[in-house]
Amino acid sequence: MSVIAILGAGPGMGLAIAKIFGAHGFRVALLSRDPAKQEPLVSELAGHGIISAAFRADARDHGSVASGLAAVNQRLGAIDVLEFSPADRRRPLPSATALWIDLYVHGAVAAVNHVLPDMLAKRSGTILFTTSASSVYPAASFGAVGAAMAWLRNWAHALHAAVGPRGVQVGHVAIGAVRPGALSDAIAPLYWDLHTHRHTVEKVFLLDVADWLQVS
Fold it and tell me: Which CATH number do you get for residue 40?
């Protein structure tokens, strides 16, 4: 049975992605800073007949990422799909002169370095990144976060070109919505599309570009 690891799982997009992949036979690993908060999601997924488990991983801690993903391998099996979407809503948005490199750049590199060698060896696998639309449409109020996310988006495109011919799909979803959790069921199918249509690297979900830029 295939396994998807969702790093940054929560009751919004993480749960919706878990349901989409779980409905196609995937086991689901929910990784976050506090696995206890994922237990209600594990119970909900079980109600849909989806096998899942919660694991600890903090995207800002390389050792935590490695140990969390290793625990997924041990309990559920080899990771076939990695979805990377960490968020820290406790941190206020800093000015455009600061960067959230620790969360979105270093965390992504640590996670990919853990799963990519095995995927390349098998010549199969999928890596999916999630950012806000500020990675595509820069806005001053999202400067610090958007810059780090733009790096992640750029890396996703570069990885897609580098490892796609070797059997590994890399994709990126940019979400432009004030409350994406409320739209998670509409957005989640984009991840399955990127997993199955392996020539595509990016999906952008925008309610309206002008509205997004005005809000941001």
Answer: 3.40.50.720
Q: Tell me the residue type at 198.
A: R
Number of domains making up the chain: 1
Q: What range defines the domain where residue 110 resides?
A: 3-215
Amino acid 178: pLDDT: 61
SS3 149: helix
CA distance 151 to 148: 5
Non-local CB neighbours of 6 within 8 Å, separated by 6+ positions: 14, 17, 18, 28, 29, 30, 31, 83, 85
Amino acid (1-letter code) at residue 10: G
Report yes or no: 146 and 138 within 8 Å, Cβ to Cβ. Answer: yes
Distance CA 18, CA 38 (A): 12
The first and second tokens of residue 58, run together, are: 């903090």
pLDDT in tens, 97-115: 445 677 788 899 999 999 9
**Range from 50-54, 150-154, 206-210 carrying the lowest mean pLDDT:** 206-210
Q: What is the pLDDT of residues 183-201, one digit of tens each?
A: 889 999 999 999 999 999 9
| H-helix segments, the chain | 13-23, 39-47, 62-75, 101, 107-122, 143-163, 184-187, 189-196, 209-215
Q: How far apart are CA 124 and CA 197, in angstroms?
A: 13
